[in-house]
Amino acid sequence: MNKTPAKNEIREMLQWLNRNRQQLQQYAHQYVAYNANGTIANSENLREVLDLAEASGEIFSIYLVPGFTASIVILPIYFRTVSTHEWSPTYQVNLKHKDLAINATMVVDSGADFSIISLKAGQDLGYALADGEHISIGQTIGGTVEYVLRQIEMTIDGQNLMVPTAWIQNNTADVMLLGREVVFDKFNIEFRQADEEIIFTKREDALAL
């Protein structure tokens, strides 16, 4: 079982990820197990990466490397030629489905109504469509995507949540987004871009101050 890192370890891991995001493009469409010291394992097979990373004995997180090559990508949107600060607001979230639990790196997106996982990530976590299940259409900038909603068990900073999550049914992008529904009701979230840090504060803790 993947050990949960301490907050300072998570921060160091995310800083490493943001510094090395470009180099990780060689693993496009693959899962990468990483920590503050670098990559531990990579594969298109999630369980293979988990087995290799857990065998290392190191604390790690999982990052699904996006497969985009263009300058602009929908869900999320990257303006590479415009941005002067190449920091992506990512946070570590534990996702659990049946017997599989992973520490996943997700982009925190205040513009997304729901959290989002890609087609590949949902399949690898063990989700499947029910016979005759209705597929919904979501509106994005530049087009639409097909999705189904799943209630995904998430743990964020020790707090367990059931989060309605859009499981994308198109190979639009290998996107993992943490949206507003439920999450933003439970936490006050502060973005500190200059420090390349996101701070989650439980609302009851914030109200007690």
Write a brief caption for the model.
By secondary structure, the protein is an alpha+beta fold. Helix content is 20%, strand content 38%.
Structure overview:
With 209 residues, the chain is an alpha+beta fold. Helix content is 20%, strand content 38%. It has five helices and twelve strands. It has helices at 7-19, 46-56, 119-125, 183-186, 203-208, and strands spanning 31-35, 38-43, 61-64, 90-97, 100-108, 115-117, 136-140, 143-156, 159-168, 176-178, 187-192, 197-202. A six-stranded mixed barrel has the order 4-5-10-6-9-8. The radius of gyration is 16 Å and the shape is globular.
Topology:
Blueprint: H1 7-19, E1 31-35, E2 38-43, H2 46-56, E3 61-64, E4 90-97, E5 100-108, E6 115-117, H3 119-125, E7 136-140, E8 143-156, E9 159-168, E10 176-178, H4 183-186, E11 187-192, E12 197-202, H5 203-208
Parallel strand pairs: 5-10, 6-9
Antiparallel strand pairs: 1-2, 1-3, 4-5, 4-8, 6-10, 7-8, 8-9, 11-12
Tally of extended strands? 12
Strands ordered across the widest β-sheet: 4-5-10-6-9-8
Largest sheet: 6 strands, mixed, barrel
* Oligomerization: single chain
CATH topology: Cathepsin D, subunit A, domain 1
User: Averaging pLDDT over every residue, what do you get?
Assistant: 86
Order of helices and strands: HEEHEEEEHEEEEHEEH
| Low-confidence parts | 69-74
Give me the secondary-structure category: alpha+beta
**3D shape:** globular
* Gap from first CA to last CA: 35 Å
Helix content: 10-25%
Q: In the CATH hierarchy, what is the class?
A: Mainly Beta
What's the helix count?
A: 5
Total tally of structural domains: 1
Tell me what the CATH architecture is: Beta Barrel
Approximately what portion of the residues adopt beta-strand conformation?
35-45%
CATH superfamily: Acid Proteases
Radius of gyration: 16 Å
